[in-house]
């Protein structure tokens, strides 16, 4: 038996960077919301942060680049759906109120 097989695996550096990016993007979103809660451009900024976070998750944790092209396309469509829905709600909310 290989004696290295019993050793715990260290996290991959890309996962650590992805985790740091997600924490940073979450902090950025909270700071934007707290500092600019009345700004008209805030929904677009939040949608961008959400899209970036989804992209980081797909690439680092879901291994999007190794998926079949159809699955990759569906995943990208799913990631784009939430930011687009946020923008749509922001636009419709402004026109209704």
From TrEMBL:
Keywords: Membrane, Transmembrane, Transmembrane helix. The chain crosses the membrane at residues 16-36, 42-62, 74-93. This is Cytochrome C oxidase subunit IV. It comes from Pseudothauera nasutitermitis.
């Amino acid at each position: 038996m290989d004696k290295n097989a019993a050793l715990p695996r260290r996290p991959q550096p890309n996962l650590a960077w992805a985790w740091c990016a997600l924490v940073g993007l979450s902090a950025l979103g909270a700071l934007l919301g707290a500092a600019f809660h009345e700004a008209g451009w805030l929904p677009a900024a939040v949608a961008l942060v959400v899209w970036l976070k989804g992209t980081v998750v797909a690439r680092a944790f879901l291994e999007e680049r190794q998926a079949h092209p159809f699955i990759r396309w569906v995943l990208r469509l799913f990631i784009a759906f939430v930011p687009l829905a946020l923008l749509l709600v922001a636009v419709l909310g402004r026109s209704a109120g």
